[in-house]
Amino acid sequence: MRIEVTADVFRLAQVFTISRGSRTEAKVLTVRVSDGEAVGMGECVPYARYDETLESVTAQIGGLPADVTRAGLYDLLPAGAARNAVDCALWDLEAKQAGTSVRELAGLAPLGPEITAYTLSLDTPEKMRAQAAENAFRPLLKIKLGTPDDMPRLEAVRAGAPDSTIIVDANEGWSAQVYADLAPHLVRLGVALVEQPLPAGDDDALIGMARPVPVCADESCHDRASLPALKGKYDVVNIKLDKTGGLTEALALREAALAEGYDVMVGCMVGSSLAMAPATLVAQGMPYVDLDGPLLLAEDRETPLKFDAAGVHPPLPALWG
Fold first, then answer.
1. N or C: which end of the chain has fewer CB within 10 A?
2. DSSP string, 79-136
3. pLDDT value at position 185?
4. In angstroms, what CA-CA distances link 77 with 74, 83, 85, 93, 172?
5. Which has the closest alpha carbon to 118: 129, 128, 132?
6. Does residue 22 register a pLDDT over 90?
7. Model-level pTM?
8. In the sheet that 288-289 helps form, which strands lie side by side, from edge to edge?
9. 263: left (phi over 0), alpha (psi -120 to 50) or beta
10. CA atoms of 53 and 101, how far apart (whole Å)
């Protein structure tokens, strides 16, 4: 078996800003696993927040043995971007070898579209209101915040999109005091969910704190090993394949989180349709879905995912799965 890794760049439709910085392109790694006839594909987005670079993740993948299997992969690589791309490529290859779908291999029910959030990047209140107004037809908007001066932005988005459900993502940018001060206003403005308000290393402050709006663990939740530390702090976990290290662990984390009473959000990094495709399997029936990466791009894969009023649709076989 042969494993190939290539670096690909997709231009963004516009500058995308969060509390940690801005970007104009999505830099991803594409993995192709071939048995000489069939080729399985996967994509990952190395993330500096987790000490990942294109080079470091490429080196991790390059160190794998040619006969790696999905089961063996989990002993060779930790949760993260490298394992994700290889795991998803192996799922894709197995489905092609068996002449079936990944959905059937995984024993999942038939797939359908799921409503996904659309993300508004961090900007001035005036520009965020304009973004919100332009996308007010969307049922679910996610807004990037995470500064001490977020109230005018939040008010502006609600004014621009009065009927949309809103999710707030602070990207670890608030203190406990800022979150406590904002919480009543989040309720007043009809915010449905707050992602990672505090830094992952400081989230013990959430224990015992009133959570009038459900709080979602993003940077604090990577895989099943993360769950014990979330008790008493969070109501929802955000499952991203680049954090779990692949579809295999993502499906297992979903079941474990639901069994422990958490709601589930299925999210993404800014990547192409190939990165989102496996996540559509995890997103089935989940209350919060944020797989809008391709909607933020100016260019995508040759066979992109379909997005319409029903949401994000499962991938066609020509893309993945």
1. N
2. SSHHHHHHHHHHHHHHHHHHTS-HHHHTTPPPP--B---EEEPS--HHHHHHHHHHTT
3. 93
4. 6, 6, 11, 19, 26
5. 132
6. no
7. 0.95
8. 118-120, 140-144, 165-169, 191-195, 215-217, 236-239, 263-266, 288-289
9. beta
10. 31
